[in-house]
Amino acid sequence: MIVAFSVTPLGVGEDVGEYVADAVRVVRESGLPNRTDAMFTSIEGEWDEVMAVVKRAVAVVEARAPRVSVVMKADIRQGVTDGLTSKVDTVERHLSE
């Protein structure tokens, strides 16, 4: 599965980059395939391992912020691996036609 998620600390002011970096650090240290862009961090793996990483990423922000907002979208598809790369490659292939 691939989960795209965003963790936003609330009640800490407008500059939240350091809080988001804490969450992204948890994802990167997990060893699971991941990608971060301006809006979301995506992580790929089995259900339990992905959700455990998301939970830890939220917890690290929650430890420093009085309130946390989380947005998640999941793509659950059996038998697919390397979806983070292959899905983008497919779109790029169609764009180059």
Automatic annotation (TrEMBL):
Q: Which GO terms describe its cellular component?
A: cytosol
List, for all copies, the residue spans of the domain called Thiamine-binding protein.
Answer: 3-92
- Taken from the record, one Pfam family name reads Thiamine_BP
What InterPro entries is this protein classified in?
MTH1187/YkoF-like, Thiamine_BP, UPF0045_domain
The record's section on Gene3D superfamilies has:
3.30.70.930
- Alphabetized PANTHER family for the sequence: UPF0045 PROTEIN ECM15
Q: Which family does it belong to?
A: Belongs to the UPF0045 family.
Protein name per Swiss-Prot or TrEMBL: Hypothetical cytosolic protein
